[in-house]
Amino acid sequence: MSDNILKIQGLKVAYGGIKAVKGIDLEVNKGELVTLIGANGAGKTTTLKAITGTLPDCKVEGVISYMGQPLKGSKSFELVRQKLAMVPEGRGVFTRMSIHENLLMGAYTRDDKAGIEADVEKWFSVFPRLKERAAQMAGTLSGGEQQMLAMARALMSHPKLLLLDEPSMGLAPIMVEKIFEVIRDVHKQGITVLLVEQNAKLALEAANRGYVMDSGAIIMGGNAQDMLHDPRVKAAYLGEE
Ligand code: ATP
């Protein structure tokens, strides 16, 4: 049996005349933390949106399989039921619901009441700022606090695969560290992660494998530690000589 949870073959996405993704292949195996790095506009978010079926009306070709089944055209709620969770760029929390309600929404496919409450308490202990603000509307949280909430909400669904779109974007360095600590922890607990990041150094340090995307194509892929020491990656993505 194959080990991959996610397999993308020949994915092409075009927004009108703009070819955002030009025929990529990508795999994520069970238990791996895989990162997809690349410059602005490389096509990373488009790739994640193709996986979750949340692209706007545009031309999509190729095959995306999740646990051996084709995923194309799936609705978001169906993805959650299939244990696939996404934390989008810009977080996507329910701004007019409280922090506590947001967490419960993440668990809407579960019916183990005691387990859900235990998980809420767990995330409140990981992110004490959320606990202090449990009754507050999520829209009043800072960007970093919304990122914590979005991540905790996604994990409330007990996903098998967690997709993260630029979790460090716009966060203060101390918050970036905290978020990456949680990502590494979640991975250690056995959740498979596909992490899109512009902070290539942190992402490769946390990952097992990485892919580099440039102008809609995957131009490099391999062991994350090797990539950290690759002169081309160093020069183009790590700001090193
Ligand atoms: P970033 O790191 O800046 O978020 P990215 O690698 O995630 O970049 P995408 O957001 O996937 O890149 O964008 C890839 C290309 O597709 C870009 O040229 C972008 O302008 C274009 N694009 C993205 N969304 C749309 C859209 N809805 N309509 C038209 N073009 C789009």
Write up this protein.
By secondary structure, the protein is an alpha/beta fold. The protein has helices at 44-52, 76-81, 99-106, 113-126, 128-132, 143-155, 173-188, 200-206, 224-228, 231-237; strands spanning 4-15, 18-29, 33-38, 59-66, 69-70, 84-87, 161-165, 192-197, 209-214, 217-223. The strands form 2 sheets. The protein has a 6-stranded mixed β-sheet with strand order 6-7-8-3-9-10, with helices on both faces. A 4-stranded antiparallel β-sheet has the order 2-1-4-5, with helices on one face. Strand 9 (209-214) and strand 10 (217-223) form a beta hairpin. Adenosine-5'-triphosphate is lined by residues 15, 18, 20, 38, 40-46, 56, 198. Residues 15, 18, 20, 38, 40-46, 56, 198 line the site of adenosine-5'-triphosphate (ATP).
**Hey, roughly how much beta strand do the residues contain?**
25-35%
The CATH architecture can be named as: 3-Layer(aba) Sandwich
Helix content: 25-40%
Q: Count every beta strand, where a strand is a DSSP E run of 2 or more residues.
A: 10
Number of domains: 1
- Heteromolecules bound: adenosine-5'-triphosphate
User: Which secondary-structure class do the elements indicate?
Assistant: alpha/beta
- CATH fold naming: Rossmann fold
Main sheet: strand order: 6-7-8-3-9-10
Ends distance: 43 Å
**CATH homology superfamily:** P-loop containing nucleotide triphosphate hydrolases
- Return the string of H and E elements: EEEHEEHEHHHHEHEHEEHH
